Sequence to fold (249 residues):
Amino acid sequence: MNDTRTRQTRGISSGGAPRVLVVEDEAALGLLLTYNLEAQGFDVECVERGDDAELRLSEAPPDLVILDWMLPGVSGLEICRRLRARESTRSLPVIMLTARGEEGERVRGLSVGADDYVVKPFSVPELLARVRALLRRVHPARIAPLLSIGDLELDRGTWRVRRGGRSLHIGPTEFRLLECLMERPGQIFSRAQLLDSVWGHAAEIDERTVDVHVGRLRKALSQPDEEDPIRTVRGAGYGFDETFGKVRN
Fold:
């Protein structure tokens, strides 16, 4: 699948939706998985080659990977092995798909670090259930309806943000930006990572746009006498301060 088709399949990122990378060289199955995952609220990207998957994983690791065993370029088994060897992707959830059903092959797939193993042909609802179960275990904040840190609450269902009981007026872009930061308190995101998560990989927007929206978000979140929950690391990016709302010595 070429880059243009991949971006059309994925569309614009929904920001807070859990991001799934599907690596499947059977185009029909890749489209089927993409359609069903997106229908369940996931932000999906699908690639057909193992080397293309390697590139996307190095650019912006998703929340979960659905990985076919046999792929052109680089095998799924080798991709999984490389993911587990890198610190940045060591805990990335991986579900491996394969036509190999023998017990020995399943053991081999799990031994290189796959979290789950699904044999083709499989039930799509069952796969979706496994995806959600794995995300609940590894990234509970990615599917929680309410994010709450200190006196700040973000409600995904109603698209409302409250601080200390008062409602805050926040635009949709600032909402997605806050959602992204609150999901991983303490993590510093580069401008490029925030553009990818909030605006989408295909969006042609200057990175300095992130600074403008962070400024707007800060004004909406905090009154003059209140603690700023957003942390700036010069030359690196932005993050949600993991000490926000905690008593400091």
Notes: Residues 124-138 form the longest helix (15 residues). Confidence is low (pLDDT under 50) at residues 1-15.
